[in-house]
Amino acid sequence: MNIVPMADILEDANRKNYAVGGFNINNMEFLQGIIEAAEESKSPLILQTSEGAMRYIGKDYVISMVEAATKNITIPVALHLDHGSSFAKTMECIRLGYSSVMIDGSHEPFAENIKLTRKVVEAAHSVGVTVEAELGKLGGTEDDLTVDEKDATFTKPEEVVEFVEKTGVDALAIAIGTAHGVYQGEPELDFDRLKEINEKANMPLVLHGASGVSDDDVRRAVSLGINKVNVNTDFQQVFTAKLRQLFSEDADLYDPRKYCGPGREAIKEKVKEKIEILGSKNKA
Ligand code: G3H
Ligand code: ZN
């Protein structure tokens, strides 16, 4: 596969103070829309699958589709497992050819999160694969993962140095007020916390739950040290909105190419907007 470790992409983003999209794929149209937008924008790209998306698409299809999608491109692309739930799942993805994995030990106590993350880092680094971990816990729902808002916890800056040193992780996902899925009200990001974490961590930081966050807040988060911004829900919403619009305009529509094609275009346009906001345009 024509893919690179995520660390290569994030190292440049960290040095030059911009962010790269960690964009989730849910089917072939998502993959095509995202790849085309990134290639036309000359932006590096992190393609990611949740475990739910892997089950839906089928792991062999993921690999074959990404192989086809990256065959004739000029931009660097990483293939990343989003919210890996166990050591076994991360190893499965590495064996399949992923260049990066997230191990999400955020539901574990601090010491257990360190232990699990360290184990994945040791195995992944021995074969040149990048690792993202999470400290603090995001609320909301993404696929199999639901965290009630009352159980969400912000990242504690005082835990950051110990976590990074003991795990050897390459990128750190933090909780500063974003949530997965659709927001009920306006998200309020704790920028002071982000600033403090960035000073302590001095490494690529990841913002999950970025759909529904205002463009200005995303820009501000990037200026304060976020180098990877995860988006899934926004793309799901524009794809579905396009299909709804087409069906409401023409109740006799039956050819999937006539609604999935425009859905793919809608994702492509949204990805281009995100790339502008993140500052990764022309960075490939
Ligand atoms: O890991 C994936 C992202 O955090 C997705 O967040 O639901 O705001 O798109 P989102
Ligand atoms: Zn996430």
Oligomeric nature of the chains: single chain
Rg on CA atoms, Å: 18 Å
Q: What fraction strand?
A: 15-25%
Strand segment tally: 11
Q: How would you state the average pLDDT, rounded?
A: 96
The largest sheet, given as strand count, sense and whether it forms a barrel, is: 8 strands, parallel, barrel
In spatial order, strands of the major sheet run 1-2-3-4-5-8-10-11
In the predicted model, the low-confidence regions spanning at least 5 consecutive residues are none
Which distinct ligands sit in these coordinates?
Answer: glyceraldehyde-3-phosphate, zinc ion
Q: Helices and strands, in N-to-C order?
A: HEHEHHEHEHEEEHEEHEHEHH
What class would the helix/strand composition place it in?
A: alpha/beta
How large is the count of helical segments?
Answer: 11
Measured between the Cα atoms of the first and last residue, the distance is: 18 Å
Helical percent range? 40-55%
Shape: globular
Structure description:
The protein has 11 helices and 11 strands. The protein is of the alpha/beta class and 284 residues long. α2 packs across α11, α5 (87-96) packs parallel to α6 (110-125) and α7 (157-167) runs parallel beside α8. An 8-stranded parallel β-barrel has the order 1-2-3-4-5-8-10-11, surrounded by 10 helices. It has a 3-stranded mixed beta sheet with strand order 7-6-9, with no helix packed on it. Bound molecules: glyceraldehyde-3-phosphate and zinc ion.
Give a topology summary:
Blueprint (H helix, E strand, L loop, with lengths): L5 H11 L3 E5 L3 H14 L3 E5 L1 H7 L1 H11 L7 E8 L2 H10 L3 E4 L6 H16 L4 E6 L3 E4 L2 E3 L9 H11 L3 E4 L4 E2 L10 H11 L3 E3 L7 H9 L2 E6 L1 H17 L6 H23 L6
Parallel strand pairs: 1-2, 1-11, 2-3, 3-4, 4-5, 5-8, 6-9, 8-10, 10-11
Antiparallel strand pairs: 6-7
Helix pairs in contact: 2-11, 5-6, 7-8, 10-11
